[in-house]
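Re-run with default settings, no changes from the original entry. Doing this only to confirm the output is reproducible before filing.
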Amino acid sequence: MKKWSFFFRPGKKTPLVYIHGLGCDKNDFRQALREPGLRGHTILSIDLPGCGDSPYSTNRHLTIDDLAEIVFQLIKQKITQPVILIAHSMGSMIALSLAKKHPRSIAAMIHLDGTLVVTPKLSTNKALKQTCAEFSKNVLQEHIERFRLSKNIGQRTYAKQLSKVDAQAYYDYSRSMVVTAKNKRLLKQYLASNIPMIYVCGANDEKEHSCLNILREHKKQIMLIPHSGHFPMHEQSKKFYDLLVKLVSSPIVESRTLFFR
């Protein structure tokens, strides 16, 4: 685990484990360490391989399932009780993969603008038809240039994160996202899961998520953060953390006391 970069704060309250999105990094959750309402909670946030300060191996092309196992092994090393997974974007795929293999390690999941389906218009689809070099030029670099000029603080932060990401990792993860979401199997797993879950979405992004209507039809809980897009932890930080404090303190989460297998 020494090669992965992460921050960890031990505590006596329910552990919170943050899983970042495609090309993002652990610092998306850095403010949690300063949030008064989360004082006492164990907090863990990792840079996935090839993101932030974590290296990416050229010997193996990692998948969503591989990332889930990496996160689980770090959790197992640092924490001895069920955790609340806070998963952003691609992180929701990783969280659901982890939940499928190690369900008793999870107290609850908070999906933050989680990617449960990959719609045809998402740029990740191009990874199946392009080489890594082509994808890096046509998608990764284009995103960096477009987002760095944005008026949106979340997108500008993302551009800085993307400028550090390993191009091969970004390519491999994009390919795996498309394959993992095939036939809506992640959405089906979400709907069938017995683990307490909530889907949190920036209100400005509501129309971008085709899964929301399906979640509503199945009476799944959804909460919208006003005046926010895909990066509420940056765009509406106070509203995001106020909501997070409320969610992690819910009786449903606190009553789930299963331990690792």
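Confidence is low (pLDDT under 50) at residues 254-261. The two ends are 21 Å apart (CA to CA).
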